[in-house]
Amino acid sequence: xxxxxxxxxxxxxxxxxxxxxxxxxxxxxxxxxxxxxxxxxxxxxxxxxxxxxxxxxxxxxxxxxxxxxxxxxxxxxxxxxxxxxxxxxxxxxx
Length: 94
Ligand SMILES: [Zn+2]
Description:
Layout: H1 11-23, H2 28-40, H3 42-58, H4 63-83
Helix pairs in contact: 1-3, 1-4, 2-3, 3-4
The structure holds zinc ion.
Residues 11, 14, 37, 41, 43-44 line the site of zinc ion (ZN).
């Protein structure tokens, strides 16, 4: 994983502002950073698509529902990365 530059969103930051993005409550500059991160990060792209699906299904999310959906989606994505042996050799005892 490449360390993010000062100007880049981290995955954690992205998930915190995801509701602003979905609601269109984001400045042009923040939106550009958000979209750039999405373009480079498969995990967050997956989270976004789950998010959009959730919104389509429920129509409109309350803030509590969004928060829970965020947490759940991010947990799933990160667990998948961690459990994928092809992308994780850090715990190898050798
Ligand atoms: Zn990300």
